Amino acid sequence: MWLLLAGCWLAWAVSPSGAQASPGTPGSPSAIAREPAAMALREKMVRAYRSLRSYRAHVIQRQWKSAPDQASVIEIEFRFQKPNRLYLQVDYPQIAQPGRWHLTWACDGKTLTFYNSARHTFQRIKAPVKLDKLILAGSLRGPEFDLLLRDADPFAALEKTAPVHYTAGFEQQAQEAVNVLQVEAQQEGARRTLRYRLDPESNLLRGFTLRILPDPGTVSPFLEAEEKATVEVEYTQVEANPRLTDADFAFTPPADARETGAAPQAK
């Protein structure tokens, strides 16, 4: 097994669940509300991402606890080409000080590089055949990372951890109409509602909202306390099967960046 981890962490936030359920409380088919239209839309979305040969997206993610005007803003640049070419940059605001910093993953099919601008360090290893064991930042909320990099269905994973309710709808926005897939999950400590906005032709994401509402009452001492939060994600650029070149996956760390000596190995 191989990992790249420096100043980032693995979290369930990559999938729709956003958190782990405690052992012994898996979801079951009887706990899943399978509205036919919603399940059909879910399957269209999963198939759409799995069928892609390449993908390009620019994403703006805003997250806040109390008020939208206090949101922290993350910018994500994502390019992928099967089977193992990747460029992913996640740009963060500094905490309690001005400025920004970023994490970069780049794989040109031969070499996989991870760079942390806050630490000014990088790791570099031989590119694996697949990127399914790559550890990404816990701040990444989109299901496309599981679907493209791991060929895993994040919705199926969610159903194993919590009761889930799916509903489908249609929304007319100012510039476009979108299909809406809403996913509600009751997990230990909180209720999560995800509202995915999908392009009606490609079935790819145009945006989504995640709302976390902690359960009232006393928090179990065996669970990490949940906090009320809202995440709004907008895909400002989406390209299905774009013609990507070597330049799209090229990355060279700054000349004065330090290469860490404990680079993990591929297996």
**Distance linking N and C termini:** 5 Å
Quaternary assembly = single chain
Record field, number of beta strands: 13
Strand order in space, largest sheet: 1-8-9-10-11-12-2-3-4-5-6-7-13
Query: What does the main sheet amount to?
Result: 13 strands, mixed
The CATH C-level class name of the domain at 32-162 and 240-259: Mainly Beta
Which segments are poorly predicted (pLDDT under 50) over 5 or more consecutive residues? Answer: 1-15, 17-30, 263-267
Distinct helical segment count: 3
In round numbers, the mean pLDDT is 84
Task: Describe this protein's structure.
- The protein is mainly β and about 270 residues long.
- The chain has a domain at about 30-160 and about 240-260: outer membrane lipoprotein receptor (LolB), chain A, CATH 2.50.20.
- It is about 10% helix and about 40% strand.
- The chain contains three helices and 13 strands, in the order βαββββββααββββββ.
- The chain has helices spanning about 35-50, 145-150, 155-160, and strands spanning about 30-35, 55-65, 70-80, 85-95, 100-110, 110-115, 120-125, 165-170, 175-185, 190-200, 205-215, 230-240, 260.
- A 13-stranded mixed beta sheet has the order 1-8-9-10-11-12-2-3-4-5-6-7-13, with helices on one face.
- The longest helix has 15 residues, at about 35-50.
- It starts with about 30 loop residues before the first strand and ends in an 8-residue tail after the last strand.
- Residues about 1-15, about 15-30 and about 265 have low confidence and may be disordered.
Brief write-up:
Helices cover 10% and strands 40% of the residues. With 267 residues, it is mainly beta.
